[in-house]
Write a structure and sequence with these properties.
elongated, D-Maltodextrin-Binding Protein, domain 2, alpha/beta, about 260 residues, five-stranded mixed β-sheet
């Protein structure tokens, strides 16, 4: 009996001491949905460089991910599609702002998959159908799209015919399924399905579309998180990002 109790205690101690070791090599990343495809490629390359490390993602819109982090959802890193959302979390003391990196940039494009007679964004005012955008309240791509359409003077006329998606990939799906006549997505989203879409035009950039990443302050895997942030600025990561259609911000490094 005493031996069994002693043995059970040894097993329990071994389990407790081993579990942190396993967890220490696993990163949980809250990542903007628009980055989902390239993020998986980046994770594979990082894991190859760091044997034993694993990267697991929680994909959603940047606004929804930020809300999850505020509520204490487990995350080691946050890869956002919005610098302003990242800065708000920094002000709340939830992410390590000084250690943040801005690793990629993008543009917005107007796309269609049907027979909509669009040759420029200004043709939208004569469009009888519907236009899909990300919900600007929580989706940075939606906010960027609204800014662009307002700068062109067509947003007000289109407002009653806009369908809002919960993330940018949902907007892409709406267009691909022809549930709407046109949509505004990141250029990189268009490239994922360019054989099934028609690119109307690239939209003017009002707010620079930069993608920052930062360590969540509550993480217990700071060393691995910093290693992943450094990897995002590496030559291999840049190659993966450029191949996927992203551009590099003029000042690669700490988020502005």
């Amino acid at each position: 009996m005493i031996f069994r109790v002693f043995f059970s205690l040894l097993v329990l101690i071994a389990f407790i001491s081993c579990k942190p070791k396993q967890d220490r090599h696993k990163l949980t990343v809250s990542c903007a949905m628009g980055l989902s495809t390239v993020a998986k490629e980046l994770a594979t390359a990082f894991e190859h460089q760091n044997p034993g490390a694993t990267v697991r993602f929680n994909f959603a819109s940047s606004g929804n991910l930020a809300a999850q982090i505020r509520l204490g959802a487990p995350a080691d890193l946050f890869m956002s599609a919005s610098v302003s959302i990242m800065q708000r979390l920094e002000k709340m003391g939830l992410v390590d702002g000084p250690g943040a990196v801005t690793f990629a940039a993008n543009t917005m494009v107007l796309i269609t998959s049907g027979n909509a007679r669009l040759t420029s964004p200004r043709d939208l005012v004569n469009l009888n159908g519907r236009l899909a955008l990300g919900n600007p309240r929580s989706v940075p791509a939606g906010r960027y799209a609204v800014e662009s359409l307002k700068s062109l003077g067509v947003y007000r006329q289109m407002k009653g015919r806009i369908v809002y998606g919960e993330h940018v990939r949902q907007v892409l799906d709406y267009v691909l399924r022809r549930e709407v006549d046109a949509g505004v997505v990141y250029r990189t989203d268009y490239l994922l399905a360019k054989d099934r879409l028609r690119l109307v035009t690239e939209l003017p950039v009002v707010t620079p579309i930069h993608f920052p990443a930062a360590m969540v302050v509550s993480t217990t895997k700071k060393e691995l998180a910093r290693r992943f942030l450094s990897f995002l600025l590496s030559r291999e990561a840049r190659h993966i990002l450029k191949k996927a259609g992203y551009s590099l911000p003029k000042a690669v490094g700490s988020a502005p």
